């Protein structure tokens, strides 16, 4: 009798358990928290809270959890979790947090940690060419290696904050470098002294950083909070935190911030509102007029200057938000695209208006675009994150010159003024172990390298003179391969922990044509 009762009650419990709703919080903590943090405020992955997810409500959120997200580290969970469990997590992500940190100037200031074991030096403490230093970001164990660009000797290897993303930014003299991680930490490192100077948390969930033309200010683009943080490069103190709100009152995440040396400004890509912002880095910037008032005194309509001087903000109004940018080398034009759109847009940055559209489907990755001279005309090229193709565009007519078919969608492209070739990785798909080498004049693939079969091979950076090309084997037990950029022969292989981006001091501070800035 007792056995029968136990059996009945355990059957009842099992039936109840089967009917009970999945425990979303437990599932989240088990499967999502490692990247997005238990607080849901973001780590290697973005923050997962209503403020940052509102565009994904509905089936899309379930779709991303089930199938992953192209061009990101987000994998699909449909083979690990059931439909109900995925739906429960999606529902949980829509729940507002009890409290979202403001992360204003006081929080940023409180997070600032300057190293008391750092002593400034008068000159490099090593004998390599300071202009030919190349940094390698090793995401496998969150370090940066400092390479001598002539001998490829590792001069230092220092720990970085968690999940560095985007290019580190050098001071104009190449002496300091600033490195940002997705969880908002910004680190300052002295290359001459081979020593960290300090770090500060500029945002909760951040995208990238940009250096001002004069090297005095560092802007940090934030998703959370929806702000731009501007730091003093000298001591990492807060100079300004700008709330990012569109003209119509819509708060917006900042997808990215860039330096625009022509107009002496930071340029902001806004994710949620159809505007681009120019934020002056020139202390004498002219007043920006953003509205008009009726002056009773003067009996006329008077323009209302909203800001002037350092950090004056100018809005460039668009037809739709653009979140991925490429700039012409003279910074007269910005070429932008929205992730979901089938076209690119050309914006004249001096007059502040859209002037042309480009046929660019397949999710172009304009951030990796490069430009060069071909038959006396400047062309630009961009890979596509969804198509096995590279688009080459004439920058005078804004017409497509050629679609180069590749072995799979790529992420990064690189060249150098002294190289006749463009290097383009095949980041996604079965050919992720390939790098195409393309002739800049014929636009033909002249060679496909496959240095580590089966492993992801990606991102190229040249040495200062363009003689060598450095390629990452993007694996935990990976390497940086040094190629002779003319003969395309391997010269050296340096073991590294999941090396991602590589950044040559000279190529960056001289705004080399073939690289990102
Ligand atoms: Fe990046 C640069 C945006 C996913 C590695 N990435 C950039 C820049 C932007 C950007 C706007 C240029 C800013 C700069 O360097 O100052 N990246 C995005 C995305 O929107 C996207 C697609 C989705 C996301 O979650 O952010 C994305 N990026 C990735 C990755 O998954 C990569 C491969 C691995 C990682 O570290 O997250 C990645 N992104 C990089 C790297 C650069 C970069 C290595 C710098 C390239 C350079 O040479 O300058």
Key words describing this protein structure:
mainly beta; five-stranded antiparallel sheet; binds heme D; 517 residues; Methanol Dehydrogenase, Chain A; four-stranded antiparallel sheet; Cytochrome Bc1 Complex, Chain D, domain 2; globular
Quick structural overview:
This protein has 517 residues and is mostly beta strands. The chain contains 8 helices and 35 strands.
Structure characterization notes:
The chain has 517 residues and is mainly beta. Among the domains are: 24-93, Cytochrome c-like domain (Cytochrome Bc1 Complex, Chain D, domain 2, Orthogonal Bundle); 105-129 and 149-287 and 306-358, 8 Propeller (Methanol Dehydrogenase, Chain A), CATH 2.140.10.20. 13% of the residues lie in helices and 39% in strands. The chain contains eight helices and 35 strands. It starts with a helix and ends in an 8-residue tail after the last helix. Residues 1-18 have low confidence and may be disordered. The protein binds heme D (DHE). Heme D is lined by residues 71-73, 139, 165-167, 208, 256, 367, 411, 459, 500-501, 516.
